[in-house]
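Chapter review: from sequence to fold.
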Amino acid sequence: MINVKLGKKRATRVRPGQKIADIVKHALPHSRYKPYVVIRNNSFGSFNEIINESTNISLLQHFHESSRRAYENAAILILYYVVENLFPDQRLLVMHSMCDGAFCRFVNENFCTDRVIQQIKAGFDKIVAADHAIEPILLSRNDARRYFKEIGQADTEELLKYCEANFVTLYHINGRRYWLLSPPAPRTGLIKIFDIMPYKKGFVLRCPTEGNERRLRHFTDQARLYEIFQETDNWGRILEISTVADVNRLIAENQISDVIKIADALQEKKIANLADQIAHDNERRFVFVAGPSSSGKTTFSKRLSIQLRVLGLKTQLLSLDNYFRDRAELTALQGGRLNFEVLDAIDLELFNDHLQRLLNGEIVTPPIYNFLTGVKSPGPKPIHADDKTIVIFEGIHGINPGLTPAINPKYKFEIYISALTHLNFDNMNRIHTHDTRLLRRMIRDFKYRGYSAADTIHMWKKVVEGEKKYIFTFQGNADAMFNSSLIYEHGVLKTPAVAILKNVPEEHHSYPEAQRLLDMLSNFLPVDDTEIPPTSIMREFIGNSSFSY
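The token string follows.
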């Protein structure tokens, strides 16, 4: 007999060789928990894992990010299984996040007709109704590579070639095995709420979002976001870099130097094109740069300022953070709480007054906000903006129409920026933009703000919730979008991220997420940062930028 401790419940004696699902069902028959993923010994695991040693098990009570991830992983696995059985001669690619789901396309884009999508949906429904178990199986990395080589899945075989782990977990359904970065839900019958809807040259596999697994959110088209992803994907195909294995191969062959130069040069060219677009319209006076956390807004704004000055314009760079209401006022306004993520945290009256006065040719003195005291005071430098001056504001609410109700839109140019990673691990597993930004934020917080990786992971959930409410909703309002991701960046982020993630205490509630990120990073070869330009967006996070922040 072995001991199994279920959360705060006293340890239960059970026979070895049982599945976690069976142990939980017997010990807690009436417990309300989300049956998608379990935390076993402080790491995410499958309910179908077999227990052969004393184990601590934690159950998740809410449909938050980890449960939602397991739900979507199972949906993608079902999708792949269905497509392989229906269309064995076609190759499906799970490309990137889109419209509360994953955008997918076939290599042969002309194959994706409405009739094909209906066949896929019908096949998906059958697999859900059959309620197949999705079983984990632990293999040596070499055995897993041999399996994927035998079935002709070169993308996954090549990925595992560079993986640091000696053993990998695959998940199988009816004998077919799949590699997933993190565990899927344990049974196909759990994936009852989904949609497969035609979109552009493919389709979107949609799943419920955090908070409610019983319904899909209203569909919101993200055409401009799709265009940015497509542009980045096309550029990657030209360079023959579409997967993590492609980047790892270039690192192993000492060819990553050229990729670094090309990636940063491409971003500089796009920033220059945006400057041309702004300068072309003589009425533009204010540029607003908005985007989610760790998108590189500050460095982007500084580089845009340089490109505008190349065109003969004068620039002023200002942060919306300096217009926050005093802490005492904000606390009173929010009924004792303190939330800087909401639009009302900004002193909108003062901000719009300053904008109007600048338009009138007057001199204003922008404030400086002291986060230690929670008080803003007049800054040291009055500014004046004539018709040859562009004032650039950087902040999360920059494209929210409620920010500048008193300003005619003709005077504004709004830019949405985010790190929209186009790389995939293999044809089935994409890199989430969410994870890329978390790694950036974690390294910057540790290096410049004194936060540990555990601290950043802990606060990240609230950051993301704020972004969904106050940033993503308005991304379609922007005049332009800019993708700040760099094709080589995960290799650069790996070394500093691993160092701080390994220091997350095992007893800390952020530990399972830290382990997930470490597992993710184990698939990347490290990249030395010496060749990264001092003006690169990457320098905002890893240090040694030529800009001051």
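Two observations follow directly from the output. The radius of gyration is 25 Å. Residues 306 and 315 are 8 Å apart (CA to CA).
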